[in-house]
Design goal:
Elements (H helix, E strand, L loop, with lengths): L3 H28 L24 H22 L3 H20 L3 H46 L8 E2 L10 E2 L16
Antiparallel strand pairs: 1-2
Helix pairs in contact: 1-2, 1-4, 2-3, 3-4
Length: 187
């Protein structure tokens, strides 16, 4: 049974797969003449900063982007924070490339996806912190159980009564080992 946090981080990780599907769909729609589809795709494939790909190069770039998104989604699904961070940074840069083309709908889609991915990242962090706290509590409980199972130690400190350092120590009892009080009536 999955915890709520695990479901939330896996939900955030699934958005990497959705972005890969959207990139494939946008590329297919654009190749069939639907220019509006660029708004739902990846900015890296249509940026003026990237050399324009043609034919097989475009397919290879799309496959590379989809593979990277799928790998990030897989590692993010395992709860790896680095996958969330790298994916969010890369997707934010991709959104900035769409903004350079003034594709504001695509930028909005990127912002919404980033919000959902960040939710998964936050849940994965909380789950890791919960696991750390559970381990710490288990250690503390084990130490308390071990302490309770040990015999009680004497409360009084041990004070040697002999000058011989090898003599067995005697328990110190306040007032029991004191010399007798001086006699005040002698004068």
């Amino acid at each position: 049974m999955q915890s709520t946090l695990e479901m939330r981080w896996r939900s955030g990780a699934i958005w990497f797969y959705w972005t890969a599907v959207l990139a494939i769909a946008a590329s297919l729609l654009r190749s069939s003449g639907q220019l509006w589809a660029g708004d739902i795709g990846l900015g890296i494939l249509q940026s003026p900063l990237v050399p324009q790909f043609a034919g097989g190069e475009r397919v290879a770039a799309l496959v590379a982007a989809v593979v990277v998104l799928a790998l990030l989604g897989w590692f993010a699904g395992l709860g790896k924070a680095w996958a969330f961070v790298i994916g969010m940074v890369a997707y934010a840069v991709d959104g900035a490339l769409l903004a350079m083309n003034a594709q504001w709908f695509g930028v909005g889609v990127h912002v919404v996806v980033l919000v959902f991915i960040y939710g998964g990242f936050a849940a994965a962090g909380m789950a890791r912190e919960n696991e750390r706290l559970e381990r710490e509590l288990a250690i503390r409980a084990s130490l308390a159980k071990d302490k309770a199972a040990r015999p009680a130690m004497p409360e009084s400190p041990v004070k040697p009564t002999a000058t011989d350092p090898l003599a067995a120590p005697q328990a110190f009892r306040p007032g029991a080992n004191l010399p007798p009080p001086p006699d005040e009536e002698r004068s």
